[in-house]
Amino acid sequence: xxxxxxxxxxGNLLQLGEYPHLSFIQMRKKYGDVxxxxxxMVPVVVVNGLEMAKQVLLRDEESFAGRPKMHTFSFFADxxxxxxxxxxxxxxxxxxxxxxxxxxxxxxxxxxxxxEHVCAEASALVKRFLELSSAKGAFExxxxxxxxxxxxxxxxxxxxxxxxxxxxxxxxxxxxNTDFLKATSIINPxxxxxxxxxxxxxxxxxxxxxxxxxxxFIAQRVEEHYTTYxxxxxxxxxxxxxxxxxxxxxxxxxPVLSNDKIITTVNDIFGAGxxxxxFWIFLYLVKNPDIQTKIQxxxxxxxxxxxxxRFDDRKDLxxxxxxxxxxxRHTSFIPLTIPYRATKETFLSGYLIPKDTCxxxxxxxxxxxxxxxxNADLFRPERxxxxxxxxxxxxxxxxxxxxxxxxxxxxxxxxxxxxxIILTNILQQLRLQKCLEDQLDLTPKxxxxxxxxxxxxxxxxxx
Length: 463
Ligand code: HEM
What we know:
Layout: H1 20-31, E1 34-39, E2 42-47, H2 50-58, H3 71-74, H4 90-107, H5 113-136, H6 142-158, H7 167-183, H8 202-228, H9 237-246, H10 259-273, H11 277-287, H12 289-301, H13 318-331, E3 340-341, E4 346-348, E5 351-353, E6 358-361, H14 363-367, H15 393-396, H16 412-429, E7 430-434, E8 444-445, E9 451-452, E10 457-461
Keywords: Endoplasmic reticulum, Heme, Iron, Membrane, Metal-binding, Microsome, Monooxygenase, Oxidoreductase
EC number: 1.14.14.1
Organism: Pelodiscus sinensis
């Protein structure tokens, strides 16, 4: 594929700027949907455009389903991992199926487990927001939100929640979150220039720090489960995985799930389940008070009244669903999919892509493509509603934030349900306001998962 000229050794690394996904949009204007960069010594194919993204992610599901060997992921990327595993094949496919089954059995609405935990966390968050507000006036909502989201995924994985004054938990969660963001905060030069790995600089070391803290946290809890496991009473995802391991012949032919694989699977679900989306939700709410009012009116019109909102209410709260879709689209806070690797020699848009080539898919571009979205840079939840105020599901499906195909996110339903319950609980009881002096900048801090710049909010109890 065509692409810009590159320098020796560093390739195009210096041309990526602070926001590589935006630089890729500029490149697309010149070179089209498929272009070639050199990051250090490594050739990388960059893919823009919904149709081309589908070609990569959906065509035969296998040609591009590998992950490249990268320094950032090397700490998490042994053959036992789901998300970052370099190897792709039958064993990986079975692993994903098992993880999906374990997650589904505890998150589907009939199981009620996720719903109960999310509702409990949402109430705790309302209470904590009020406490912080009366103690400090204005406060930054991100630390407490990190703990709320971590608590939901803890409950799913280990059947246990933590108090917000549990220092060990709080420190572990914040450290994991900060180190992960630091590790993935730019395109890491150590991924593309091997000698960089030996330099004692934070970006190179952060991934390791993140991995060690997360792994210790998870391994300890999985070990506890081995001793208290009861096959007649499965409490959570870890128990479900132990049970699947004990089923020696899964589907008649599958290999046994090893102890290590149980830890790494929980690790994958736990890591991915600790997402940042709520930081953005609160920011957009304080920035758009009129939108906040519309969601509050919808909660009242749909007669939820003072009862706790449930997953099932999603089908009736169209404007609220449109708002969440628009935050996902507008922020595209995970701008690129996790990098892919060609598992075999393949043609893409007429270009030969050799086996093992690394591929970046620019989801941000798809979500800001003017041919798909009118005034793409405007934040406008109404774009997802028809004239009767009903959701345009076809358009929602065009928002590309969870990936597509065989590597698609496992937690899409969990994430949607969790965001919906927390958002509606908060707005049912509280009014969120910005601090007068706060400019509320929507420019993100770049990363695999982008975070807003620090901001403060104030809350008032609704009467
Ligand atoms: C708004 C929240 C979330 C977003 C935007 C999101 C998005 C993504 C994206 C873009 C990927 C990579 C897809 C690719 O490589 O093409 C991914 C992978 C994954 N996500 Fe999520 N995710 C979210 C929440 C969650 C939650 C709550 C869980 C679990 C409870 C989860 C579990 C996973 C797993 C296990 C993978 C790895 C899939 C694989 O490599 O096959 N995610 N997610």
